[in-house]
């Protein structure tokens, strides 16, 4: 069966222009002139017999025909690029490049890597904890684990586990046998930015129905792992996901005198068009 397809350069020019919404930026992306992009798009419109863009001074907008063509074209190009990369680098099929928040990596994932290696002996793993703003645009990653509700664009979210936040402290705070009064304890916080805390303590207190606790003071850390270590040293009480402190709880290194749990969500997101090793295994 013969296929009628417009020239590849015309299709590439249309995709770039549609994604950039600008002929000049599309030309820069493809390393050609602006007039070349305009000419290729016009040629494509003539071949298809439809108008793909509404052209106005300083503005470029897709028509209904353009909006129909773009996703089909981008998906096809992604599949071609993926297949070509697989053929050129077959070893990538056994390598998983994963980005994970630092505390989740050190306290939850690393202890499970030995089991992962036994299950998938041919899988090679590259694990990073650096902060990545745009997962879909980072071509060095196959997948990432993030905290959230999974309502993200340009990634394929897969639910991993349900967080269960609990308040924990070192047993040394309970040496005299008296019940702990949160109003007399140092609260350990995790920072979201240099000037903003994660509201974990407030969420937990609201869920527990506990009032009258001043959450403004206490010690602050930029990593949950540091707050957990500070709590282990008896410096105060922190809120942590039960999965992050499971080993200490099992060994009796933690005390959790408050039964209330506060829930969150941890999905795993794989940037679209990648994650081949993860899909393979």
TrEMBL record:
Which GO biological process entries does UniProt record here? Answer: DNA-templated transcription
**Transmembrane segments annotated in the record for this chain:** none
Q: Note the Pfam families from the entry.
A: HTH_1, LysR_substrate
Query: Could you give a GO molecular-function term held by this entry?
Result: DNA-binding transcription factor activity
Q: Which CDD domains match?
A: PBP2_GcdR_TrpI_HvrB_AmpR_like
What keywords are assigned to this protein?
Answer: DNA-binding, Transcription, Transcription regulation
The UniProt entry, under InterPro entries, shows: LysR-type_TF_proteobact-type, LysR_HTH_N, LysR_subst-bd, WH-like_DNA-bd_sf, WH_DNA-bd_sf
Q: Pinpoint the HTH lysR-type domain residues.
A: 6-63
**Similarity comment: family membership:** Belongs to the LysR transcriptional regulatory family.
Q: What is this protein called?
A: Glycine cleavage system transcriptional activator
Q: Which organism is it from?
A: Halomonas elongata
């Amino acid at each position: 069966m013969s296929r009628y397809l417009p020239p590849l350069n015309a299709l590439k020019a249309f995709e770039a222009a549609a994604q950039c919404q600008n002929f000049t930026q599309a030309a820069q992306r493809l390393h050609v002139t602006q007039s070349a992009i305009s000419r290729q798009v016009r040629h494509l419109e003539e071949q298809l017999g439809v108008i793909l863009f509404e052209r106005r001074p300083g503005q470029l907008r897709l028509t209904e025909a353009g909006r129909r063509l773009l996703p089909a074209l981008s998906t096809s190009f992604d599949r071609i690029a993926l297949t070509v990369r697989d053929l050129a680098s077959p070893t990538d099929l056994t390598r998983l490049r994963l980005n994970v928040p630092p505390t989740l990596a050190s306290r939850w994932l690393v202890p499970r890597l030995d089991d992962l290696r036994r299950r998938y002996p041919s899988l090679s793993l590259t694990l990073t904890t650096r902060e990545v703003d745009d997962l879909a645009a980072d071509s060095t990653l196959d997948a990432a684990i993030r905290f959230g509700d999974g309502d993200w664009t340009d990634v394929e979210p897969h639910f991993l586990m349900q967080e269960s936040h609990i308040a924990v402290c070192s047993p040394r705070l309970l040496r005299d046998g008296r019940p702990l009064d949160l109003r007399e304890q140092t609260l350990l916080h995790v920072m979201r930015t240099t000037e903003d805390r994660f509201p974990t303590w407030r969420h937990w207190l609201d869920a527990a129905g506990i009032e009258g606790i001043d959450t403004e003071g206490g010690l602050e850390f930029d990593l949950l792992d540091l707050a957990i270590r500070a709590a282990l040293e008896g410096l105060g009480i922190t809120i942590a996901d039960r999965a992050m402190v499971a080993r200490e709880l099992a060994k009796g290194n933690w005390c959790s005198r408050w039964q209330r749990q506060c829930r969150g969500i941890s999905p795993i997101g794989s940037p679209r068009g990648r994650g081949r090793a993860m899909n393979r295994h």
